[in-house]
Design brief:
- The chain is of the alpha+beta class.
- It has a domain of 92 residues.
- The chain has 9 helices and 18 strands.
- It has a 5-stranded antiparallel sheet with strand order 6-14-15-16-13, with helices on one face. Strands 2-1-3-4 form a 4-stranded mixed sheet.
- Strand 17 and strand 18 form a beta hairpin.
């Protein structure tokens, strides 16, 4: 909940876990879970609210042409009108809205608009709907929320109660309608008990390591089970259920896609970006960073839907800012593409900003002038999710 999320580098380390083929590193209840695999690593959220706790809040409808793919269930492809209704319901419950015009000026948003202009894409720049609250009051589920103060720490969890993660709307709404919610339990599989006509949901307490000894199986029963554990979680549960005898499609785990995601940085620019989250700094000490993503260059209106992409600006959450500063400082001269200094830039200005960041921290100098870019596109959808020793791989 608000106030419980990591706000410092030490908090960030404590809230990291690494799920590898060799061992589980860190607490299985840590907020940020990194699935480490040979081909692709995936970061997911671990907590009441899942990855919505650490996402970038953008609520953008997909290009309608993507639903023409015959791999989607025919019933879904034939019911686009109802799908649009469901989109609207979700947008309402999640409070999807654009950053208001009267919101404080955000240099990172201005910089993205300038990038759009330089790319000849000014007509494709706009403020996308994001799931953030900008006014104090009750949300669509009837629960009080605070306005966004622009701390920029969306990706490490909102400590101010302004981000509309599902623990602020859908989950308390379910609890208000007499639903029970259990945390700290890792679902293993779902199997059918035909004798009793129910489903058995098998699970283990996440942090007790019962799987290491001959502990009795734990389960709850249900008439109806809806899996909503994310791309990795739901697929892994179904694959383990298949091993336990549940009939599933041969396509399960096939065609995994990473959405063509790219994370990039314009390190040490000549413009103030102010893209590092506040962390423990109180309101007013650092200028507003704004929500993680506030602008978009939307290049999806292409002849071939697979050629479309979007570019968004981002913010760096405070718990990782110091570490990222070190990484970018080392990587920039080796891997980066050096850009010419603008006319009139003082000699050694770049080096001076780097030194200022090293001496004064990520809210100054080079890191203060670093723009984060998030790109979503398309890949060849050739990935495969399997389970090895029970873990998704």
């Amino acid at each position: 909940m608000a106030g419980d999320f990591p706000a410092t580098p030490l908090d960030g380390v404590a809230q990291m876990q690494y799920n590898t083929g060799v061992a589980q590193i860190g607490s299985p209840l840590a907020l940020l879970e990194v699935h480490v695999n040979p081909d692709v690593n995936v970061v997911v959220g671990c907590g009441l609210g899942g990855t919505s706790l650490i996402n970038a809040t953008v609520s953008l409808k997909p290009d309608a042409r993507l639903w023409d793919d015959p791999r989607w269930p025919a019933a879904l492809r034939a019911d686009q009108a109802n799908l649009d209704v469901c989109y609207e319901r979700a947008a309402t419950m999640l409070g999807a809205t654009r950053v208001p015009d009267d919101y404080p000026n955000l240099p990172k948003l201005d910089a993205l608009e300038l990038s759009a202009k330089r790319l000849g894409m000014s007509d494709r720049f706009y403020r996308p709907p994001i799931t953030v609250t900008f006014k104090d009051g009750k949300n669509a589920a009837g629960f009080d929320q605070q306005r966004c103060i622009g701390c920029g720490d969306c990706n490490s969890g909102c400590n101010h109660g302004a981000k509309n993660s599902t623990h602020m709307n859908y989950l308390p709404d379910a609890a208000a309608h007499a639903r029970q919610i259990f945390t700290g339990a890792a679902v293993h599989s779902v199997v059918r008990d035909d004798a009793r006509g129910v489903w058995c949901v098998r699970y283990q307490p996440a942090d007790l390591k019962r799987e290491l000894y001959d502990a009795p199986e734990l389960f709850v029963t249900a008439d109806i089970v809806i899996l909503s554990a994310g791309t990795l979680g739901s697929t892994a549960i179904l694959l383990r259920s298949q091993e336990a005898g549940l009939p599933v499609s041969k396509q399960l785990g096939q065609h995994f896609t990473g959405n063509g995601d790219v994370l990039a940085f314009a390190f040490n620019t000549d413009k103030v970006i102010n893209g590092v989250g506040w962390g423990t700094h109180p309101e007013g000490v650092i200028p507003p960073v704004g929500p993680c993503i506030t602008g978009i260059i939307d290049h999806r209106n292409t002849a071939d839907v697979k050629d479309g992409f979007v570019i968004e600006e981002g913010s760096v959450a405070a718990p990782i800012a110091l570490g990222l500063m070190g990484v970018l400082g080392v990587a920039a001269p080796v891997e980066g593409v050096e850009m010419p200094d603008p006319a009139g830039d003082p000699p050694l200005a770049d080096e001076a900003r780097i030194a200022e960041s090293v001496l004064r921290g990520p809210y100054h100098g080079a890191m203060r002038n670093t723009q984060t870019f998030l790109v979503m596109a398309h890949d060849d959808e050739s990935g495969q999710i399997t389970v090895e020793g029970g873990r998704p791989a």
